[in-house]
Each structure stands twice: as C-alpha cells, then as structure tokens.
Write a structure and sequence with these properties.
The structure holds 2 protein chains of 2 kinds. By secondary structure, chain A is α+β, with helices and mostly antiparallel strands. Chain A has 6 domains: about 70 residues, 2-Layer Sandwich (Phenylalanyl-tRNA Synthetase, Chain B, domain 1), CATH 3.30.56; about 110 residues, Nucleic acid-binding proteins (OB fold (Dihydrolipoamide Acetyltransferase, E2P), Beta Barrel); about 190 residues, Phenylalanyl-tRNA Synthetase, Chain B, domain 3; about 70 residues, Phenylalanyl-tRNA Synthetase, Chain B, domain 1 (2-Layer Sandwich), CATH 3.30.56; about 200 residues, Bira Bifunctional Protein, Domain 2 (BirA Bifunctional Protein, domain 2, 2-Layer Sandwich); about 80 residues, Alpha-Beta Plaits. Chain A is built from 20 helices and 37 strands. In chain A, the strands form 10 sheets. Chain A has a 7-stranded mixed β-sheet, sandwiched between helices. In chain A, strands 5-4-3-6-9 form a 5-stranded antiparallel β-sheet, with no helix packed on it. In chain A, strands 11-14-17-18-19 form a 5-stranded mixed β-sheet. In chain A, a hairpin with a 7-residue loop joins strand 36 and strand 37. In chain A, helix 5 packs across helix 6, helix 7 runs antiparallel to helix 8 and helix 10 crosses helix 12. By secondary structure, chain B is an alpha+beta fold. Chain B folds into 2 domains: about 90 residues; about 230 residues, BirA Bifunctional Protein, domain 2. In chain B, the strands form 3 sheets. Chain B has a 7-stranded mixed β-sheet, sandwiched between helices. The longest helix of chain B has about 35 residues. The radius of gyration of chain B is 42 Å and the shape is rod-shaped. Classes of the chains: A alpha+beta, B alpha+beta.
Chain lengths: ~800, ~350
C-alpha cells in the first residue's frame, strides 16, 4: 500500500517525518518497505512568467520567449509548444536542471536563437502522459516558486506492506487510524458534503439481490449531465504519486476514493443499463461475458454477477463489462458501492487470473458501515469535477439484506497477560481496545468487547490479545526460557529418521564424498531419458516449467544434473552423494504418495585430485568399496553383489542384496545416456534404499569377538580360467569344501595376460587353529586339496 | 715374517681400505675380504696348526685383538657412512612437497545449518520430528486456519499434485501431524524440504525450513522470546540483537517476525561508508516468523482450550546466507563442488 504523507495529514495532524512514521508503523505490524519521493526529480523546476512570446524568425513552429523565472533578469527561451503564449505562468527547467527522463538542460542555440532553459510539458515533468503542449499554471502562481510547492505535490510516499488480516489498512483512512492511535492524535475526517439536485427528478435504481450471503449490501447513486474529461491536476498528481495512472474524471474519482476510504466503486453508463435496474446473482453455467479489457470470460455458478434487467453488466468486485463502460460521450452515471462475500470474489479473481485494486480489497473485507459514506463522498467529488451541469440525483439506491453485526468478544485481561507473558494494567488494555474503535463493557470479567466494523480480523479473544500486545510492543516482553517437560515413555525410542540420515551424511562426508542437494522435481523427459517407468510417477499439476513437472522416482537424474553442472566448470573427479526422497504413487497412502528415502552415490573421473596420488580414474572397485564400507558402518555383513542382466540406465548393473532383500543397485551409467550429461569417462552410480537399511541397522547388534591367540598361516593359489569364471564361483566353492582350519579366503591379485582371454586370479587362504600353532605340512595338505578340487570341479588351471 | 706381524699389519691396511670405501657395499666387500670365513684373517689362522704348540696361544690372542680392532674400525666407518647418508637424505628432504591428499568430503550447507539449529533446540529439550513432503491440503492449510479462499494462501504460492494434494509449502503441517499423534505437553523441531511456486534471484521452488512447536501449560510470548533469543545468540553470536515485530500468520496469534541486527554491517546500515546490501541500510534482517499457536489450530487437532503454545519457522538457506555471506540462493542447488566444499 502506497501512502502519501500529505494525504495522510488530511486525516490526522501527524507532524513527524516519513521515516519516524514508517518505523513506528513497522513496530505495529505494518512494515515499511520503502520511502519514495515521486517528485524528487522535478524539485528544481521553478515557475516562470512568459513576458513576451514571438514567432521564431527562421522556424514555422518555434517561439522565442522572454521568461521571468525569478532570476532577476529575463531569460531567453526557445519553445516549440503550440500553446505557449505571453502572460502564461509555466514550469521552467533552468540551465543545469536534469529532467526525470535524464535530459540535462544546457544553454543551446536553436536555429540561431539562444535559449537558456526549457518550458516543460506535463509528460516531460513525469507528471502525466500529457504532451499536447506545455503545462500552464493558474495566473496567480508566484513567479520563481518551486513547482513542487505550488502544486502541493505528494512528495513523500511510504510503501507499507499490509498483511492479509489488515484489510482496514488498505486505505489512507485506515492508516490514519493506526497513526492516530500510535501517536495519540485525533482522527479528523475531512468534510466533503454532498448536495443533491433538489429540482431534478429522483434517480433511484431498484436493486435485487439473489443471495444476501454473497452480497450483504449494494448501494448506488445516479449522477447526471456529467462531462467526461481529465480530472483536476490535484487529483491526477496525487493518483500518479501513489502509482495510479489518471484516466478521466469519473475513473479518477473512483480510484481516489478507493485509496482514500478503501471502498472500491464501479461506475456504469446509466444509459447503457437496460431496464433501469440492478440484479446481483450468481452466473449461470455457460454464461459468457466480455470484461472491460475486451476479454471474453466463460463464467460458472461460483461467479457473482451484477446484471441489469437483461444481461450481465459486471463481474461483482472484479471487473466491469464492456457493455456498460463509461466512454467519452457518457452523460449519466450509476455509481456502485457494495460489499461482496470475500471468498466468492477471491475464487473468481483467482480462476480468471484477474486481480485488481478492487478485488484485492473485496477479498480481504470491506467496512460495511462506511460503504454509503464512501459513495456519498465519491458523488460529492464527482459533482465537483464533472463539469458545470453535473448533478447528483436525489435518492439512494440501496439494498442491505445482511446488515453488519459486530462480533461480541469476551476478553479476560488476565488471559492476555498470561499469553503475552507480561503484566499489563486493565487501564492499558481498555485504552488500546477503545482506541482501536472497539465498544467495551468492563463492568464484569470477562469484558464484553464489540468489534469495529472496519476490523474483520477481530472476532476472538486471541485477536484482541494480539492488539494489546502489538500496541504494548512485542519487543518489550522480557525473554524467558520455557519449561520443557520431557516424557520418560519416549526415552527408549529408536534413533529418529532424521538422526539416522544425519549419521549417514556424516559417514559420507567423512569418507570424502561431497553432499549434494538436488530439487525433488525433474522433468518427465529426464525420467524418460533414463528409461524409468511412466507408471507410478507423480506429476506436478502447475509446474513452473517442463523441467520441473514430475517428482523424481530415482536420484539418478539429479545426480547426473550435478555431474553436468560440475563438468561444465571443469571438474576432473567427482564423488557426490545425496540423501533424499523418491516419490511414487501409492493408493494406500493418505497423501497418495509413497516417499522412500534413498542414498545416491556418483563417482566420475579421476580418483584423486592431485599428485602425488595416482591420476587413475575411478572404477567399479571404488563404488563397490564405498557401498561395502557403508554396510560395515551400519554393523551389517557384506552385501551380496549379483550382476543383473537388464537395467534401464546401468550396464553393468549390480544388485546389492542382504539376506534375500534387495537394497539397491550400483553400476556404470550406460555411456550412451551419460553422453547427454557431457561425461567422457565412466560414471559410476549407486542407489540404496535407506528405509530398508535403517530397519536392518536398527535390528543389528554389535557383539565382541575374542581376538585369536595363535598365528595364522597363509597360502596362495593362482588359478587361470576364462572370463566366465567369476571370483565368487571360486570363493563359494572353497567355502563349501569344509577345508579344515580355513579362516578366510580372499582375492589378492588379478592379472590379465595380454592377448589372452584368460585371467590369472590369485587367492590367499588364511588358516588358523584356535588352540595351537598350525604346522606347515598340515596346511600344505589342505591347500593341495583345495587346488585339486578347483581343477576338478571348476575346470581351472593352476 | 711371523704371523703376528702379518696379522697386525692387516689393521693399517684395513684403515686405508676403509678410508677409500665410500659406500656400505664397498664396506661389506672389505669386511668379507678381512673378516669373512675365507677372509684374510681366516687364511692366516688356517696356518696356525703348522706352528709349534707353545706359539699358538700368542698368535691366537693377536688374531683376536686384530679382529676386535677390525670390527671396531668397521663399526666406526659404518656409523660414519650411515651418518653421512642420513645427513644427505635430510639435506634432500623437501618439507614443501605436497601431501598425498586423501579425499576431502563435505556436508551441504543446509545440512550443516540444520544440524546446528536442531542441536541447539535438542539442548533445550526439543525432539526432532519429520513428515511427508507430499501433503494433503487439510494439514498444509485447513488445519492451520487457512480455509479455502483465505487470502493468506496468497502468501504461499503452491505446487499442486491434485486439487487436494500438494507439495507442502512449509514444515507447519508436521505441527498438525505431531499434535494429532501426541498429547501435550510437547516440544518438537521439524527440519525439512518445502516447496513454493516461485523462482527468481531470492526464491527457489524448493528450500529448507525448520519448524518449532512447543505446547504446554502457561506457555507465553515471553517463552517464545526467550527460546528464539537463545537460538539467535547460539547461531549468530551473543552480541546479536533481536527484534520482535508484529506480523500475521494464520496459524499463530499474536504473530511476529523476528529481525536480527545485520551480521554484515553489524547493524550499522553501512559498510565502509557504502550502504549495506544485505539489510539495505535498515540495520536489521528478517530471520524468521513466529507466534503463539492460534486457538483454531488447537481446535483442529482436538486439543483442550487451556493449553497454550508457540510455533516458529525459519528458512535454512536464509540463515546459511547470512551466516556464511552467500549472495545467491540458487548456488545451493547447483551443487558446484567448489561451493559445496567451502563450509566444513
């Protein structure tokens, strides 16, 4: 809300600065955003008197003027405006002045004639769009005075952010009330008496309201013989100062009253209203109506309409219709001032994407007790600016099916003190509430408080307590730490989901991975790119863009996006992890969604960042090592890693299993897919289900294992075999043999001779006896048995 | 020449040899030559049986003396050579060679700030709770005193899944879920992702919030002020000033916004004579919204009239930006590792 300080001063005698006012209002909950100085740029403009005006000797449109601008001597100014004439008082920009559009006035020679300044049009001064000629000031304007002073321009405008509950503060009147309360000043409503045309006929338009809930009050007056034209400078400049474009006397007056009193008004061309009556009713399904902006609107029964005897003439509270629009030839106006149900206006305004100063106020609530007052004020103003023949007809058109009934609220001063944590005297409470406009009966406890008509937000005790607290100052309540009651029943609860995730995050960061956070939404095309199923996706109904139109069903798209971002910045090696939810539809869920916590890992490029570490690239062993490390970290046994034949975006793809439960997959992103993310090297990716991991972790126990006393004996066996023999075949076979005293078997070397299909795999067998030291001979015998069995059963060469 | 003289002659010969030896290898060769099983001392001693028995002890003793002397010479020379080699190695040592850097991981700044803040509130006795990110309208809006058509819904542009299912616009629905599941008194903080249909320099469609809720008997605005003052001091330092400014949220009454003295300009409004770009010369920056739980919210979850409580909500990225001096919100979600690695 833009509030002009000089406009405010018409309602309350505030003498302080704009900044002081803004600061005080801020601490009352009306936050000052900015202080604007709309006419700052033209403050150097002075009033000049055109003493002489002669045609330019070498031009058919320029004039050579001698101007008294209070400088002690007459200035020669060349002026091109058609309306310049001797005797005028005009705004003059002297040499050195910078105009609002940035033009700096210099001494100039125009077709041989010297010019020491410029006589300005309203547009050149940034006052209005008028550029038809120079601005001409009243004859009695003092020469040499500053234009901003003689025009009484609104030079300080406060931009105040109004919270949705403070409908009353969307007007000068409302903010004047707050100012008066804050600085203990009187509120003085400037008089604007309405005189009705005593001689002419009555002007009453019958009003019919279909549903009083939707339209508690509808009023109007008829204004006749108006001459449509520009409004007086004062109105235009003031509207301009608060960001409203002046249009015509009729429109400007409705806007002026809207800003001043908070009551939106609408003017119909009375001669276009058919049947001379108004019906307020919901639209019928399929009704089509063309609004003032020329748009054809298809209406629903949720929209409230203003109709004449035959057709819709306005969308109530939102926008008028083209069919009854005021035009330059309009002579008779029916001016509407009404109250509509806020929710109805909001629904229509939202559905049609039509938000206006009027709908904004109707949505938040109107002071029903001032609706007719504002109408009369507007009529008085219109009569004053509508030309010499303009009159307001006798008779008020009014229907008020639901008169305003103020809420009666019980208020307990003790409760206010308890909730605010401060001791306020009943006298203070009473002063605040009455100062706010409440009627109050404090003869018994609780007090009975009556809501002011302009405060739709005050209906409950808590609302009144807030008012008391706000005026006292929330900032002066002494801070105290609260007593927190802990519950013994909750002492044995397992680690929270948040803490589990946090511990995994610390594990990842401690291991040397960088935690990423990607958006939960991606584009359908990102999921399509990876071949993720369409079924089960959750689409966003109103996405910001096609890149964000679906919730991710896997972490891979986000991780790959992170990869692309980093490669674009020249990253050499990336080790990224992310913990986040993936989303799929779930008919059994209250929210229709299943949210599954996942851990995503992505490795790409160089294993290490700098010499003297090796410059080798990361491979399968890196991602598998990290996954296995996590299992150890969570007190889980090593997972079973089994290659899967087919996967949409991984090849090879390895399933990570534990006790028959699938916990996730890991593998290399198919190079054809990785290319889209500008990856030139292998991209290794893993996604693990955190919900399952957490359940397994919660069930896992940690048990001490006694340390072995006797030394181990180790024997290596190297087997040669084709690529179909996997390491796990050897491990499983040997473990199944029941070799005596075998403690462990592990692969310790892998050699792939050039030009051969075969691999040389070296396994190390570790033997140990619990009660004695093993002898070489007995270990050698066991090793030999293993070797022979491998040859015989797996067909390897030793 | 008698054997004793021959033996004793070996010592000066060895000394000369040792002087010429410049490596441990040469030293070892000399040792083998003199003291080895087939070395020169051994060769001389091999002639011992040819001597008369009465001469043998003297030669034997001489041989032992010579052996000892040789061993001592070898040890001394070896020690000298080793010392020289160590000195040379030390001289070659370059302390400025780069270290063999292990991987250096990092937590996302939102994780760091969330952990810090949740830690502070845990210390005050709050539990950490969580809830779904896809939420129903009832919990996200209606139970929080925002019926359909309420203009306050404009304050939060919503991403919808269906007409009644949405991406939560704040962590406040977890307030409702917590109160429906538990009886008062309770104190929870709720960190999590939230979503708004908004994207520009200062807004991203996803960001992180932390919600706090404390419900009990006789909980007052003074307690809210105490809790948040403690929080601000812990995060931004004890010298930070806190300001409570009345505001409006549908689910709290009274409501307030909390400003802290600007951590960039120290609340002065200017840095080196230039207007502070963070607080725009006001000296204050908005940090969170809070208030006393609105009776309508208690009614929606079936809590009795007598309970009171407070709630607050803050933006994690906002705190991180102020604390670390990050200027661009979007960097949080671009995941540039040069950004990610800066905070721990």
């Amino acid at each position: 809300m833009l509030l002009s300080l000089s406009w405010l001063r018409e309602f309350t005698p505030y003498e302080g600065t704009a900044q002081e006012l803004g600061d005080r209002l801020t601490m009352l909950g009306l936050e000052l955003e900015d202080i604007r100085h709309p006419y700052e740029a033209i403050s150097p403009i002075v009033v000049g008197h055109v003493v002489e005006c002669a045609a330019h000797p070498d031009s058919d449109h320029l004039h050579c003027c001698k101007v008294d601008a209070g400088q002690g001597e007459l200035l020669d100014i060349v002026c091109g405006a058609p309306n310049v004439a001797a005797g005028q008082k005009v705004p003059v920009a002297l040499v050195g002045t910078r105009l609002p559009d940035g033009l700096v006035i210099k001494k100039a020679k125009l077709r041989g004639q010297l010019s020491f300044g410029m006589i300005c049009s309203e547009r050149e001064l940034g006052l209005t769009e008028d550029h038809s000629g120079i601005m001409v000031l009243p004859p009695d304007t003092p020469v040499g005075a500053r234009l901003v002073d003689v025009l009484e321009l609104d030079r300080e405008v406060l931009d105040i952010s109004i919270t949705p509950n403070r409908a009353d503060c969307l007007s000068v009147l409302g903010l004047a009330r707050e100012t008066a309360l804050a600085f203990n000043l009187p509120l003085t409503l400037p008089e604007l008496p309405l005189s009705l045309d005593a001689n002419g006929p009555e002007g009453i338009v019958p009003i019919e309201i279909a549903d009083g809930e939707l339209c508690p009050l509808y009023a109007g007056r008829v204004i006749s013989n108006i001459t449509v034209g520009p409004s007086p400078m004062r109105i235009r400049h003031r509207l301009h100062a608060v960001g409203v474009r002046p249009i015509s006397n009729i429109v400007d007056v409705t806007n002026y009253i809207l800003f001043e009193c908070g009551q939106p008004l609408h003017s119909f061309d009375l001669d276009k209203l058919r049947g001379g009556r108004i019906v307020v009713r919901p639209a019928a399904a399929g009704d089509v109506f063309t609004t003032l902006d020329g748009q054809e609107r298809r209406l629903t029964p949720q929209d409230l309409c203003i109709c004449d005897a035959e057709r819709i003439v306005a969308l109530a509270g939102v926008m008028g219709g083209l069919n009854t629009e005021i035009d330059s030839t309009s002579r008779n106006v029916f001016l509407e001032s009404a109250v509509f149900r806020p929710g109805t206006i909001r629904k229509t305004s939202r559905r049609l994407g039509l938000s206006s100063e009027a709908s904004y106020r109707f949505e938040r609530g109107i002071d029903q007790c001032r609706t007719v007052w504002a109408l009369d004020r507007a009529c008085a103003m219109m009569a004053a600016v509508g030309g010499t023949e303009c009159v307001v007809r006798r008779g008020l058109s009014l229907a008020e099916p639901r008169p305003f009934v103020p809420a009666r609220i019980s208020f307990r001063p003790a409760r206010a003190n308890a909730l605010l944590g401060v001791t306020l005297s009943p006298q203070f409470d009473k002063a605040v509430l009455t100062g706010m406009g409440c009627k109050l009966d404090d003869s018994s406890d609780p007090w009975q408080v009556e809501q002011p008509s302009w405060r739709p937000d005050l209906t409950r005790e808590a609302d009144l307590i807030e008012e008391v607290g706000r005026v006292h100052g929330l900032d002066t309540i002494p801070p105290v730490l609260p007593p927190v009651t802990l519950d013994l029943e909750r002492a044995a609860e397992p680690e929270s989901r948040h803490d589990f995730w946090l511990r995994i995050k610390h594990w990842g960061a401690g291991l040397g991975l960088n935690e990423a956070v990607n958006y939960s939404f991606v584009g359908h095309k990102d999921l399509d790119h990876l071949g993720l199923p369409v079924e089960g996706r959750i689409s966003v109904m109103n996405p910001l863009s096609a890149e964000q139109d679906v919730l991710r069903t896997a972490l891979a798209p986000g991780l790959l996006q992170t990869l692309r971002n980093n490669l674009a910045q020249g990253a050499q090696g990336l080790r990224i992890f992310e913990l986040a939810h993936v989303f799929t539809t779930d008919a059994n869920s209250e929210t229709t969604a299943r949210e599954t916590g996942m851990l995503g890992l992505l490795l790409h490029g160089a294993r290490f960042d700098a010499w003297p570490q090796s410059d080798a690239d990361m491979d399968y062993a890196d991602i598998k090592g990290i996954v296995e490390h996590l299992f150890r970290f969570l007190h889980l046994p090593a997972p079973l890693c089994r290659q899967r034949e087919e996967h949409p975006w991984l090849a090879p793809c390895v399933e990570v299993m534990l006790d028959g439960t699938l916990l996730g997959v890991m593998g290399q992103v198919k190079p054809t897919l990785a290319e889209a993310f500008h990856a030139r090297k292998s991209v290794w990716l893993a996604e693990l289900n955190l919900e399952t991991l957490r359940a397994l972790h919660d069930a896992a126990t940690v048990q001490f294992a006694p340390l072995p006393v006797y030394p181990p004996v180790r024997r290596d066996i190297t087997v040669m075999a084709g690529p179909s023999l996997k390491v796990e075949h050897v491990l499983e076979h040997v473990r199944g043999l029941g070799v005596g005293n075998l403690e462990d078997i592990a692969l310790v070397d892998l050699f792939e001779p050039e030009g051969s299909d075969e691999r040389n795999l070296t396994f190390r067998l570790t033997f140990r006896h619990g009660q004695r030291t093993l002898k070489d001979a007995e270990v050698d015998k066991e090793r030999e048995k293993v070797a022979q069995s491998l040859v015989a059963v797996l067909g390897v060469r030793i | 020449m008698d054997l004793i003289t021959t033996l004793e002659g070996l010592v000066p010969e060895l000394e000369k040899g040792l002087d010429r030896a410049s490596s441990l290898e040469e030293l070892e060769n000399l040792r083998v030559d003199f003291l080895g099983r087939k070395g020169r001392i051994a060769q001389i001693m091999a002639q011992l049986p040819q001597l008369a028995p009465q001469d043998r002890p003297a030669v034997g003793q001489a041989a032992n003396r010579v052996k000892e002397s040789c061993n001592a010479l070898f040890d001394a020379r070896k020690a000298a050579l080793e010392a020289g080699r160590e000195a040379a190695a030390l001289a070659r040592f370059d302390a400025s060679l780069p270290g063999r850097a292990p991987w250096r991981g990092s937590l996302h700044p939102t994780t760091l700030i969330t952990e810090e803040i949740c830690g502070i509130f845990k210390g005050l006795g709050f539990d950490v709770a969580s809830g779904p990110e896809v939420e129903i309208d009832r919990y996200n809006f209606e139970a929080l005193n925002m019926p359909p058509e309420h203009p306050a819904r404009d304050m939060q542009d919503t991403l919808y899944i269906t007409d009644t299912v949405l991406l939560r616009t704040h962590t406040s629905p977890v307030q409702v879920r917590t109160m429906l599941a538990r009886k008062p008194p309770l104190a929870v903080v709720v960190p999590g992702k939230v979503y708004r249909r908004d994207s520009d320099l200062t807004h991203t469609p996803m960001f992180h919030q932390i919600e706090g809720l404390l419900v009990g008997q006789d909980i007052s605005m003074a307690h809210l002020r105490g809790t948040l003052t403690a929080f601000v001091r812990a995060v931004f330092g004890g010298a930070t000033r806190v300001r409570f400014r009345p505001s409006f949220f549908p689910f709290t009454e009274p409501s307030a916004e909390v400003d802290i003295s600007c951590c960039i300009c120290g609340g002065e409004g200017h840095v080196n004579g230039e207007p502070c770009r963070v607080c725009k010369t006001t000296g204050w920056v908005e940090i969170l919204g809070c208030g006393m739980v609105d009776p309508a919210v208690f009614a929606a979850v079936g809590y009795p009239d007598e309970v009171t409580g407070f709630a607050f909500g803050l933006g994690v990225e906002r705190v991180a930006m102020l604390k670390y001096g990050i200027g661009d919100l979007r960097m949080f979600f671009e995941n540039d590792v040069r950004f990610l690695g800066q905070f721990n």
